[in-house]
Amino acid sequence: MVRGKTQMRRIENATSRQVTFSKRRNGLLKKAFELSVLCDAEVALIIFSPRGKLHEFASSSMHETIERYQKYTKDSQANNPPSEHNMQQLKHEAASMIKKIEQLESSKRKLLGEGLGPCTIEELQQLEQQLERSVTTIRARKMQVYKQQIEHLKEKEKALAAENAMLCEKGLQFGLQARGGGGGGGGSNEERAVVPSAEISEVSDVETELFIGLPETRHKRPYQK
Fold first, then answer.
1. In this predicted model, what pLDDT tens digit does every residue of 208-218 receive, in sequence order?
2. H-helix segments, the chain
3. Which of 5, 7, 132, 191 is 20 to 30 A (C-alpha) from 102?
4. Could you tell me which of 106, 109, 82 has the C-alpha nearest to residue 93?
């Protein structure tokens, strides 16, 4: 059976992608090992899986091979300075960036209402439309924030109302308990209140007869019932 040509694009199916990665990784590591043994080459291979797992192979020492590579690239850059063509390209890119920065600064000043003298009617209309769109977006966001704050305050109000109801219920229970505790001593107070009334009835039996005469003789008169 003839295998079809593999298309060089990302495999969308996650399972198929993982299986292909495992097969190709093992094949690549095997090729690196064979190259180092057959050709006596210093080989270092570093692979990171889509999940970030490290897979590596080094014929000697990975650290020494990386240091050798860094030293080689540094010496190569020192011995081969940028060419004239590269310098011209860098200057062109720098000039383009400066021009873009100036355009952005000019647009910013126009949005702030500055430097509008050279603007044409079309430019002013475009600027006005842009500001209107910005204001519409800002107002929509402001209303959204207001709604969020109102919902938050409503939730807070519900929580406070529930807490207030709980405190009122506790206060009512405490009042009932206080009344129940005070009722036990009511009988003794009534009894204490009855005793003076008996004494008052006895005092009412004291002689009330009218007597005319000196005070000394009043005490000598015998008591008649």
1. 555 555 555 55
2. 14-38, 62-79, 84-111, 121-183, 186-203, 215-220
3. 132
4. 82
